[in-house]
Amino acid sequence: RSQATIHPLRAMSSVTDSTTSWTKSSWRSRPIKHQPTYKDKKELDRVRETLSGLPGLVSFEEVKALRNKLKDVYEGKCFYLQGGHCAETFSHCNKERIQPMLDVMSLMTKVITDYTNVPVITLGRMAGQYAKPRSSPTETVNGILMESYKGDIMNCAEPDVKGRIPDPNRMIQGYFRSAACLNFIRSSTHVNNRVTGSMLQRVRMILGSGGIRSCFHPGMVGFGEDGKFKKISKDILMNPAHQLKTPLEPGQNFFISHEGLLMEYEESMTRFEAKSKGDEDGVPFNASTHMLWIGHRTRGLEDAHVEYFRGLYNPLGVKVGPGTTADVLVNLVNRLNPDNEPGKVILITRFGAEKVSKDLPPLVKAVRDAGLKVIWTCDPMHGNTFKANGFKTRDFANVVKEILNTVDVHVKCGTRLNGLHLEMTGEDVTECVGGPEELTEKDLPRCFTSACDPRLNFQQAMGVAFATGYALRASYNETKQADLTCLPTTTNVKYGKVFGLNKAVSKMVFGTLFLHKVAKPFDLLDHIWAHGVNAFDTAAIYGSPEGKCEEILGAWIKSRNINLDQLVVITKGGCSGADSKWAPRMSSAQIVQDLNGSLSRLGLQKVDVYLLHRDDPTIPVKEIVDTMSGLVKQGKIGTWGVSNWSLERFKKAVAYAKASGLAAPVADSTQASLAKPAAPVWPGTTFMDPKREAFYSDNKSGVSVFAWETLAKGFMTGKWTQEDVKTADDKPYRERTLIKAYCTEANFKRRTRAELLAKTKGVSLHTVALAYLMQLQCEMFVLVGTSKLEHFTSNLGAFDVSLTQKECEWLRDGGELHAM
């Protein structure tokens, strides 16, 4: 498979359906897989009507609570543990089956929490996991052809021709079994606060015998001898039962989940949470469970399941396995989560122990580079299934190996494994080989009770918890300052000062306007940082969709663990996008809203420099300065400035702030180049004229200039000739506008002089143009945007170009210069 990263613009190009009309039944017009064929359509309609009228099994508030918890999981503040039966059966709905599952998940939570020092959010594959996709719609049993078993909610497990005919009434049975299971969980929290005696005895037995310590992958060097293991073991071996479990509180740290497969059931369980009193529409959510996932077989981008799930408020899981391509995955995440809300989508990877190290990295990098805020979890079960002694089984060693290899992939990609997805039980089944009891293939017939695929038993599940906690300990609680990605100790880059900011700022700033179009944006950002450039300019409206460039930059900062003490982030707000013709958004509420959106996309608590991208002269400077000064005081911004304001308004803002003892604007972002535009290049923008330059020079210590279009959109690299001026009216609007702005007679002469000086000094034309700006008398920072590593490296050559004051004046005005 190609390792190429799919850039966000391409990824978004095929997800236009995410904005089309959605209803709870719009999936019916799409292709669909793995659904039963019900013969009695009237009975199906009656069942659907009945289910639609029954109360939801979960509340919107509980789903909302899970969404909030998953934001913490995404940020590394919590871990995610999802486990339960491969396929629940109606007969599982009793205390003897439910309680052991709760017990083992609670103990696993304790182990993982003790290792990682973060709380665990637990989701049971229970109270609704009654449907299963099958590789074949039919099977032959004792010479008789019949439908395959597809889960108790569709047909029966027993090999009976009549019983295998899908019966819609089973959906109602599934609803009430789910309700009963959930009711037991909700009503037994007092029981869940302690470990049952038999389970405690089994835990102590495998710890005391060394079973846990002896069954791990060779890569776990030091396991069993580390302090964490010894402390956890001592707690379990010595402490009273009531101190050992982490209580599972439904709706707080414990939630239910199932695969959303049977679409007739899922649609019937769709409810709408009113946004306000009298609201007849509301927010759609599935009230049968807190979280649903789409299986590997049913996640086609244009298929029915994705169409239904994209409209739900519930968090959504997606199984990701062999054959998944980077572009398909990025498009799928964008379809399910177009607003890129952190924690809305959980990617559940299932490749197998031998394939994950090769197949997973390209997908992680593509999602990472697209700036998508997903939760990564590992399903180490489905990719490791094989047949032995007449049974499907899994080897515990391969389960652990896939977890370890997945952790390693995320470490190398600068991401984090956020969770586990397991098929397991709290019972003493013999369905998977290996583990603390060293089960073999001969043990499989002894107690194989799964309705479908093999599950980890209690001892094996505890072993996985220890292995996972050990593997993740560094990811969650051993990040050190030395691990931060810091600037190089030697560089030719020069740094300047922005008033009010207590860190150096590189005189060359990388502009991210077109970052969303870069094929491998992280590689480009790595290259820029590694050369010593620490300042990055972005904006709330940059990218497609708007804000995408901030998301990419934020994802890079997070994945590379960039040293924030050295990083300078400049972003802009207060301006609408192209659809609103860049209209100003300058009320106090709009400024705060834009800033909060930028902080969220960047994943930062604070930006260093916040610029107001447009001005609204109808709003008094007092209101604007009061708002911005308040944000400085709150610690959300380090300092602030403006972009595209008139010089008079800027001076008024400075004067009012100083007179009132408030934080004054200290930066102005305007167009500046050796090539002087004939007029403002774009509507509503400003440029460096002599009056503005004089003001900047006189106030060098208090005002910094961030210049954009520093190479005049390529004019100062040799782009455009006199012939282009003659045919300008025949060119597209954007190019025509640039030619008329920059291709003046005076600028052609300036370029000729710069070419002559560059030739004399043995450097490139564009480095002379950039050096000219950086050697003006004001505190100048030049913005440079590029999509190619070699272009940016070439731009850095400007720091090696030395110009005298007389040379700068000659470049600008002409006249006499020393002999060339």
Give the secondary structure arrangement, pairings included:
Blueprint: H1 8-13, H2 41-53, H3 60-74, E1 79-84, H4 95-116, E2 120-125, E3 138-141, E4 144-147, H5 169-187, H6 197-208, H7 227-238, E5 254-259, H8 263-268, E6 270-273, E7 283-286, E8 291-294, H9 304-309, E9 316-320, H10 326-336, E10 345-349, H11 356-369, E11 375-378, E12 385-388, E13 391-394, H12 396-413, E14 419-423, H13 458-477, E15 495-496, E16 505-506, E17 508-511, H14 521-530, E18 535-537, H15 548-560, E19 568-573, H16 588-602, E20 607-612, H17 621-634, E21 637-643, H18 647-660, E22 667-671, H19 690-698, E23 704-708, H20 722-726, H21 733-742, H22 745-761, H23 765-774, E24 779-784, H24 789-795, H25 805-813
Parallel strand pairs: 1-2, 1-14, 2-5, 5-8, 8-9, 9-10, 10-11, 11-14, 17-18, 17-24, 18-19, 19-20, 20-21, 21-22, 22-23, 23-24
Antiparallel strand pairs: 3-4, 6-7, 12-13, 15-16
